[in-house]
């Protein structure tokens, strides 16, 4: 139905008044005459009401942004703090699971014992190689951790005096030398004589910890106590055996120079650095000298039969004595 405008209504009223003298224009009320005007203005008023209603909502629309902004700015430190707290909590929880430093070393030594058995097992060459890689990696970790416990972290100031003062006692320790040994053979084929000294040392550490913490365990009372007493009684012989294994590994490297799998650089470093260091280190010097003496007795008949072998042997002796 078409909506009449106020001008049209006025013209109708005037025409009716002119045609009928008795017609009273006052009988037509403004509400009747202009009843259509609210309907025409309703969309604008509704739009105005909508705008008025929407205008208070703008701060509400902006509120999440400001809240997000302020919340993000206020929550970011809380988030970073909570993250840091969470990380610290996880780190502390992990350390609590591992226990003390002795417990961590016990776990590492136990892993070395199991992996060492995996290296020498004859069933699978692939398993032996993987166990060999893991054995050397755990050896690096365990000996590095013991170095950090004994000597702490190196300081660089004043450089190089502080670093030298830290390195001198470290270089003469068995842990550093076995750390170097593990690094040297990390990329080579498995060699049982390299595993032996590290494995024997881990075995002694394993039983030393077990004797202190599992002394009341029935399995320890039945089996472990006797094994621990046997190892303690033969510790000197075990260390001489370790020295012999280290020397034997060097001899195998020399023989390996005659094969396609030779490693000239590894052999040079082993004979130029590792064996002389073990020969002169206070912890292992006596056992290496004893092992070399036993080897000289065994090799004496061969040296008398082949005198030309005295030349390389005398050269090696001079290299060891120069240290």
From TrEMBL:
Region called Disordered, residue ranges: 1-85
Polar residues: bias regions: 12-21
Biased composition (Low complexity): 29-44, 64-84
Keyword annotations: Membrane, Transmembrane, Transmembrane helix
Localization in the cell: Membrane
Record Pfam families: TMEM33_Pom33 (PF03661)
GO BP field: endoplasmic reticulum tubular network organization; membrane organization
Membrane topology per record: Multi-pass membrane protein
A GO CC term assigned to this protein in UniProt: endoplasmic reticulum
InterPro entries hit by this protein: PER33/POM33_regulator, TMEM33/Pom33
Transmembrane segments: 105-125, 191-210, 247-271
Family the UniProt entry places it in: Belongs to the PER33/POM33 family.
Protein name: Uncharacterized protein
Organism of this sequence: Coccomyxa subellipsoidea (strain C-169)
């Amino acid at each position: 139905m078409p909506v009449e405008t106020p001008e049209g209504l006025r013209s109708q009223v005037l025409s009716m008044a002119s045609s009928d003298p008795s017609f009273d224009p006052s009988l037509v009320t403004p509400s009747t005459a202009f009843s259509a005007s609210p309907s025409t203005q309703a969309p604008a008023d509704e739009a105005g009401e909508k705008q008025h209603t929407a205008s208070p909502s703008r701060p509400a629309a902006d509120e999440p942004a400001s809240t997000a902004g302020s919340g993000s700015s206020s929550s970011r430190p809380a988030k970073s703090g909570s993250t840091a707290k969470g990380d610290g909590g996880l780190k502390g929880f992990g350390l609590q699971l591992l226990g003390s430093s002795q417990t961590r070393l016990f776990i590492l030594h136990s892993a070395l014992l199991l992996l060492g058995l995996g290296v020498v097992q004859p069933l699978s060459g692939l398993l032996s190689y993987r166990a060999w890689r893991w054995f050397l990696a755990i050896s690096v970790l365990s000996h590095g951790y013991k170095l950090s416990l004994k000597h702490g972290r190196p300081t660089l100031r004043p450089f190089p005096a502080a670093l030298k003062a830290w390195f001198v006692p470290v270089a003469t320790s068995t842990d550093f030398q076995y750390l170097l040994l593990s690094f040297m053979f990390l990329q080579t084929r498995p060699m049982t004589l390299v595993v032996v000294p590290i494995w024997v040392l881990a075995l002694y550490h394993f039983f030393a910890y077990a004797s202190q913490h599992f002394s009341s365990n029935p399995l320890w009372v039945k089996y472990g106590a006797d094994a621990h007493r046997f190892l303690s009684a033969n510790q000197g012989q075990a260390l001489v055996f370790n020295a012999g294994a280290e020397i034997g590994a060097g001899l195998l490297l020399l023989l390996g120079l005659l094969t396609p799998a030779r490693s000239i650089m590894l052999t040079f470093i082993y004979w130029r650095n590792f064996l002389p260091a073990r020969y002169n280190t206070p912890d292992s010097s006596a056992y290496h000298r004893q092992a070399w003496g036993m080897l000289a007795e065994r090799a004496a008949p061969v040296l008398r039969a082949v005198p030309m072998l005295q030349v390389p042997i005398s050269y090696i002796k001079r290299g060891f004595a120069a240290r």
